[in-house]
């Protein structure tokens, strides 16, 4: 049993995104001995690239499972092309408009109803709503990816969010009315409006310059966190999940009895500093190692070609390096991570990240 995981090079300029194509099973055998999975489709123009990638490198027009992690445009927009151009058997997609029971109680405006809020969610998350309708028209199996959901092989499993956690996040999605009670909720669009200065940092090995107090948006925390276990090797895909969501996923890993060893983890939210903290990284990967030691884990950040210094943050890359991970960044180029898989002509080894003892970063 082998696998190949391809992080497509989303973002030719400064806007980062995610599109991941996965194939596992007997990769030297027939198509029916393999499973093809797609996690996110990047921007609209990424969809065509993703379709061609699957045809060229996986040799198929059929996709067993598509997972939409969350409805941000850099993750979901390309999936419409995929569903139209390829034969997709199953789609995992959250449908928040189905979770509007007693939602009206969360808001200050007494004129709101559960029905009107459901309509608002369809309007605000139009891409997700359209994708659900497209799947139904095409007869694609549609499921909501909550904790514990598995694919037909049992190898792919959702680590988070749980249904209850997801529903607790919906009232704080972008575009929702004012809450009945004021809560401190991180809104990245507002945070981005703050005036930022660039500061020079100097780092010592093993000292994290990230915080357990980092906050991200409710929509990011609603991201599907997916696990793939093949041949005793665990691969974890985090999308844009934040610290709280990752903690819940770590709880699921802690009770897993497979004995699988972590081999690959996606660096959340293109390497944003608010999405990971030292404590959750210790749980997911392990504590800091002696400089030069390796943990056997590969960590990959999907970033735009000109995404720096925002994506990825050097402090985040250093935090993964502290824990012995081999760190790679797409920077608008594709990266393939594989095990027991055929070689590919013209694909070459990439240079992984070295430790950043000094760097400039926005503060």
From TrEMBL:
Boundaries of every Metallo-beta-lactamase domain copy: 31-99
A Pfam family reported for this protein in Swiss-Prot or TrEMBL: Lactamase_B
SUPFAM superfamilies: Metallo-hydrolase/oxidoreductase
Gene3D superfamilies in the cross-refs: Ribonuclease Z/Hydroxyacylglutathione hydrolase-like (3.60.15.10)
Alphabetized InterPro entries for the sequence: Competence_DNA_uptake, Metallo-B-lactamas, RibonucZ/Hydroxyglut_hydro
UniProt-recorded name of the protein: Metallo-beta-lactamase domain-containing protein
Native organism: Alishewanella longhuensis
């Amino acid at each position: 049993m082998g696998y190949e995981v391809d992080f497509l090079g989303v973002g030719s300029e400064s806007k980062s995104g995610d599109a991941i194509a996965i194939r596992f099973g007997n990769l030297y055998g027939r198509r029916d001995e393999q499973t093809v999975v797609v996690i996110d489709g990047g921007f609209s123009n990424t969809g065509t690239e993703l379709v061609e990638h699957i045809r060229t490198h996986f040799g198929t027009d059929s996709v067993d499972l598509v997972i939409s992690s969350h409805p941000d445009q850099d993750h979901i927009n390309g999936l419409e092309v995929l569903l139209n151009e390829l034969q997709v058997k199953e789609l995992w997609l959250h449908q928040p408009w189905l979770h509007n029971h007693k939602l009206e109680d969360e808001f200050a405006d007494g004129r709101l109803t559960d029905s009107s809020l459901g309509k608002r969610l369809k309007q605000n998350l139009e891409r997700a709503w359209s994708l659900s309708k497209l799947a139904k028209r095409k007869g694609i199996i549609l499921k909501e990816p909550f904790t514990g959901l598995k694919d037909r092989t049992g190898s792919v499993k959702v680590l988070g969010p749980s249904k209850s956690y997801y529903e607790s996040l919906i009232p704080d999605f972008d575009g929702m009315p004012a809450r009945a009670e004021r809560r401190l909720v991180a809104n990245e669009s507002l945070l981005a409006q703050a005036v930022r200065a660039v500061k020079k940092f100097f780092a010592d090995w093993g000292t994290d310059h990230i915080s357990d107090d980092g906050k991200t948006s409710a929509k990011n925390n609603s991201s599907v966190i997916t696990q793939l276990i093949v041949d005793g090797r665990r691969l974890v895909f985090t999308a844009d999940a934040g610290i709280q969501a990752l903690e819940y996923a770590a709880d699921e890993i802690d009770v897993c009895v497979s004995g699988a060893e972590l081999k690959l983890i996606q660096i959340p939210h293109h390497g944003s500093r608010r999405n990971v903290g030292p404590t959750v990284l210790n749980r997911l990967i392990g504590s800091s190692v002696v400089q030069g030691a390796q943990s056997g884990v590969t960590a990959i950040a999907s970033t735009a070609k000109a995404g720096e210094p925002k994506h990825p943050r050097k402090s985040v890359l250093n935090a993964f390096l502290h824990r012995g991970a081999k760190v790679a960044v797409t920077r608008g180029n594709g990266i393939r991570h594989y095990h027991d898989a055929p070689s590919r002509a013209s694909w070459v080894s990439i240079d992984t990240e070295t430790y950043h003892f000094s760097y400039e970063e926005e503060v």
